[in-house]
Specification:
The complex is a heterodimer of chains A (443) and B (177).
Chain A (H helix, E strand, L loop, with lengths): L1 H28 L3 E3 L5 E3 L8 H17 L3 H22 L11 H6 L7 E7 L4 E9 L7 E7 L7 H20 L5 E7 L7 H10 L7 E7 L7 E5 L6 H7 L5 E3 L26 H6 L4 E9 L4 E2 L12 H7 L3 H16 L4 H8 L8 H36 L15 H4 E5 L13 E5 L2
Parallel strand pairs in A: 5-6, 5-7, 7-10, 8-9
Antiparallel strand pairs in A: 1-2, 3-4, 4-6, 8-10, 10-11, 12-13
Chain B lengths: L1 H6 L1 H34 L8 H34 L6 H28 L10 H21 L5 H22 L1
Classes of the chains: A alpha/beta (443), B mainly alpha (177).
């Protein structure tokens, strides 16, 4: 009886232990819910680093939600979700645990929230506001850095423009965090590119963590998944940095220096006509930082052609992307490889140092004002000759006549052209008559 | 042919005006196409043109600008004649001659732009071509009109006024803008 009791007791204890273990396991597998500062529950279900396909799809979905939001609170919530998603993915890509960085004012005040390499940086220029998301790959003992950027805002879902660009950023982040380069790398997902490069402009002017002269290079990835060709644009001339990047992938071609530059298009003030100014590398380039931007599309005689046909339209959806280029993840991966191979190349540091010297001079005096100055000089010379010629004419006026050689361009037709004259039969006999004949209008 | 045109004012008028608009389209089609492409790209949520439609729209918009200019040129020349008090000069004819020289200017610049498009050879010094072409056309215009409508006594006054207008325009459009 005692034995039976002991067996029952042991079995009960065992069952209890098993069930409590299961309960613990269930608790562990149940998504932990953390309260954000604004009270939105953010489940840690999504705290997994997504594959390129999943990431692009998720980003498209969040951009779509943002685009569909009408009320200001809905817009704020959608924006918050988008920024939170990107921040979380960036942290995961850098090997951080996102659950440690829950925004909690009390925890922050207590100093319990550790410092993260990923920051959401709010900006506003009065009309437009948003968040640039910056992730820093820190290397001690250097104050030099490079910036790798892609914008995450979109028209509609923005699968090609530019969820794939941000996916490239994420892949590059993972790869580079494994092989740390000899300088800091800032990965920045820019906001409000479609509003006129607002996010990147304010990043360069207000949020850049180092002085501009410490930024060796800026790499920009924009709309790479669709389009016939993958282009690289650095300067409007041959540069070492372009050669280095091109050597990393034979499918990448440099944008022709002679195309897209004839049509009088200098939107952001390069000082020379160049169509590839409409992306986030431009504010960096205008601050004297060498840039390299990778994009896809095609060029005809006049300039850039969006041969995907959906850029900046509501048709730039994830479904369209999958349908048009089911291997888009491979292209994203290839571009990421190009970036990482370039940045980790032994010769990159020297080439990047030299890239600043190889920038095309974009001073207005050099590119735009010299023709005006030449014309001004010619005009002054002409004015002198004009004055001399005027004096000569005045002299001639005193000595000359007031005769005009011709008063009209258009000849008056002769009477024979307008009328026909019939000779009278008795013309010879009537010599005294004033009338020569009868005239009629010619038809 | 030319003599017939000289005797047929109406036909010359129509032909010169058509040539003026066509020359302006030839001169401005590249900028037109760029503008339409830009609008198409930036406002693609609202407008989404196909390639053929883009070209048609570009040519159409440039032609509209050409038509507006066609009416502005005689207005400007008429204003010039009035302000200079050249009341004996036939205004319509004078405007037509201005059209002819503007047409020559547009054709020359259009051809140069085509050359510019096909080869980068003229890219650097090409900025001066518009100025040289405009100078040539103004000198030609002055020579023709001064011979037709002015004598030795009135010519210095006409020359001075044309020179002032040209220098002001060149300074504003070629140097300051």
């Amino acid at each position: 009886m005692k034995k039976l009791f002991l067996i029952v007791l042991l079995t009960s204890l065992l069952l209890l232990a098993v069930t409590s273990n299961l309960a613990f396991a269930e608790t562990a597998s149940t998504p932990a819910v953390a309260e954000e500062s604004d009270g939105d529950p953010v489940t840690q279900e999504s705290a997994v680093l997504l594959s390129t396909d999943e990431f692009v799809e998720q980003l498209c979905e969040l951009n779509k939600e943002l685009g569909n939001a009408k009320k200001s609170e809905d817009i704020d919530a959608a924006k918050h979700n988008l920024v939170a998603f990107l921040t979380e993915q960036f942290r995961l890509a850098l090997g951080e645990d996102p659950s440690l960085y829950v925004k909690d004012d009390e925890a922050a005040a207590d100093g319990n929230v550790p410092e993260s390499a990923v920051e959401e940086r709010y900006f506003s220029d009065g009309n437009t506001s948003g968040y640039n998301i910056q992730a820093k790959l820190d290397v001690e003992g250097t104050d030099e850095c490079i910036v790798v950027g892609a914008h995450y805002d979109a028209v509609g879902e923005g699968a090609n423009d530019n969820a794939c660009g941000v996916a490239t950023l994420l892949l590059a982040m993972q790869q580079l965090s494994q092989v740390k380069p000899n300088f800091d790398v800032y990965f920045v997902a820019f906001d409000c590119e479609e509003d006129g490069l607002v996010g990147s402009s304010l990043y360069v002017n207000e949020q850049l963590p180092v002085k501009a002269d410490k930024v060796m290079m800026m790499f920009n990835v924009d709309s790479i998944a669709l389009g016939s060709n993958l282009y690289l644009a650095c300067e409007n001339k041959r540069t070492d940095i372009a050669d280095l990047i091109l050597s990393k992938n034979s499918n990448l071609v440099e944008k022709s220096h002679t195309k897209g530059v004839y049509v009088g298009y200098d939107l952001y003030g390069y000082g020379y006509d160049e169509f590839v100014q409409g992306s986030d590398h431009t504010p960096f380039r205008l601050s004297g930082i060498p840039t390299a931007t990778i994009f896809s599309g095609d060029y005809d005689l006049l300039g850039y052609v969006d041969d995907s046909g959906v850029m900046n339209t509501s048709d730039d959806t994830f479904a369209h992307l999958k349908k048009s280029n089911s291997n888009f993840a491979e292209r994203v991966s290839a571009v990421s490889d190009v970036l990482c191979d370039t940045i980790t190349d032994e010769g990159f540091y020297d080439v990047a140092q030299n890239a600043r010297k190889q920038l095309v001079n974009n001073s207005l005096l050099y590119n735009s004002w010299w023709p005006s100055l030449v014309i001004l000089g010619v005009l002054i010379l002409l004015a002198v000759f004009t004055w001399l010629y005027h004096r000569k004419l005045q002299k001639k006026a005193i000595l000359g006549t007031a005769e005009v050689k011709s008063n009209n361009v258009f000849d008056k037709p002769s009477t024979e052209d307008v009328f026909s004259f019939d000779k009278r039969d008795d013309e010879k006999s009537d010599n005294d008559s004033d009338v020569d004949g009868i005239f009629t209008f010619k038809k | 042919m030319f003599n017939k045109l000289r005797q047929n004012y109406k036909l010359s008028n129509v032909l010169i005006r058509i040539a003026f608009v066509l020359a302006y389209v030839f001169y401005g089609w590249q900028e037109g196409l760029t503008s339409v492409r830009l609008v198409s790209m930036q406002m693609s949520g609202l407008f989404n043109f196909g390639n053929a439609a883009t070209v048609v729209l570009a040519v159409f918009s440039v032609a509209i600008v050409g038509l507006i200019l066609m009416f502005l040129v005689p207005m400007f020349t008429g204003l010039f004649l009035n302000m200079s008090r050249f009341y004996n000069v036939p205004r319509a004819e004078y405007g037509l001659i201005a059209h002819v020289f503007c047409t020559i200017y547009f054709v020359a610049c259009g051809a140069f732009k085509m050359l510019n498009l096909l080869t980068p050879f003229t890219l650097v010094w090409g900025a001066l071509f518009g100025f040289v072409a405009s100078l040539g056309c103004v000198i030609g215009f002055y020579c023709v009109t001064s011979k037709l409508y002015f004598n030795d006594v009135t010519r210095p006054y006409y020359f001075r006024n044309v020179a002032i207008v040209y220098f002001v325009c060149a300074l504003v459009f070629e140097v300051l803008l």
